[in-house]
Write a sequence for this structure.
């Protein structure tokens, strides 16, 4: 799941052919730019050190360009009467809350029809091959993706926007997209994508933990959720995840719903024998997906509320 040292769930920033149609134009442009550099600089005949240096250069170039564009949008918003419209449209296109909800909801609907339909729907949001997943496996994959992408696609972009405005948001999305495309522990990307993956880990350190806390708080307002269980599992099991960040929201999700997530999983490159996160049942169902979506919506509202509170404090000063 998220970052280099593990097989990753595909995030909403990912730009594989399956996902390109649903991406914002700005992310498609970033993805095309990364793909261009990947083809030109990440060649098999180069040494690992050479590829690592070239990958670091790509991060500097892409992040720098994202900062420049973000700064330009922020300048327009502050200096032109209708400049804020451009920034607002950028925010709407770069935040993935609704798109994530729709993709995960489609998995629940598909599973109610058949396991095959569920596999087809979950293939849009996970990096593993769903062909070997049974019904509970499909449901768990959807919930894991929901939890991680709540952090990557909702909390983290808002966090960096609050701190540094539109430039912070666009730089984060650029780094997250680079991680999605080249931040893999494969022979092709281990060196070239190392800088992108490590920087993405750093940028998500605080947002991932905030996302876990928001899910814990959200469980207080979801009748079928278990708030103490969400907090207990998150604090106890987050460290067992292969990702330094994804275990926090996934642990909160697992504890809140009384499920066991993660665990052994099958990818095209083989089986990953990860420990389970949570001590509940691994037999997740479409009903559990809907419970997770309820939790996700409330957590999104909590995320919006803390931003609104910060804005009110700023405007009152």
């Amino acid at each position: 799941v998220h970052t280099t040292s593990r097989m990753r769930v595909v995030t909403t920033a990912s730009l594989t052919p399956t996902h390109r149609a649903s991406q914002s134009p700005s992310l498609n442009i970033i993805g095309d730019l990364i793909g261009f550099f990947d083809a030109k600089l990440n060649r098999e005949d180069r040494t690992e050190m050479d590829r690592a240096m070239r990958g670091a250069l790509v991060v500097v170039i892409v992040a720098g360009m994202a900062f420049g564009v973000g700064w330009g949008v922020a300048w327009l918003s502050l200096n032109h009467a209708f400049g804020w419209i451009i920034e607002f449209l950028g925010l709407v296109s770069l935040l993935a809350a609704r798109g994530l909800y729709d993709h995960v909801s489609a998995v629940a609907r598909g599973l109610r029809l058949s396991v095959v339909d569920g596999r087809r729907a979950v293939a849009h949001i996970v990096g593993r091959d769903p062909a070997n997943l049974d019904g509970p496996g499909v449901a768990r994959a959807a919930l894991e993706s929901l939890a991680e992408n709540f952090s990557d696609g909702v909390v983290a972009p808002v966090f960096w926007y609050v701190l540094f405005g539109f430039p912070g948001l666009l730089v984060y999305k650029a780094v997250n997209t680079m991680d999605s495309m080249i931040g893999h522990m494969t022979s092709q990307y281990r060196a070239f994508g190392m800088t992108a993956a490590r920087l993405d880990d750093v940028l998500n350190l605080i947002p991932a933990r905030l996302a876990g806390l928001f899910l814990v708080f959200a469980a207080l307002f979801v009748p079928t959720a278990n708030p103490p269980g969400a907090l207990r599992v998150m604090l106890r099991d987050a460290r067992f995840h292969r990702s330094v960040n994804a275990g926090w929201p996934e642990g909160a999700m697992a504890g809140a719903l009384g499920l066991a997530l993660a665990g052994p999983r099958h990818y095209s490159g083989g089986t990953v024998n990860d420990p389970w996160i949570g001590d509940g049942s691994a037999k997740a169902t479409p009903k559990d997906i809907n419970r997770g979506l309820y939790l996700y919506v409330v957590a999104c509202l909590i995320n919006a509320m803390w931003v609104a509170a910060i804005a009110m404090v700023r405007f009152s000063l």
Notes: The radius of gyration is 19 Å.
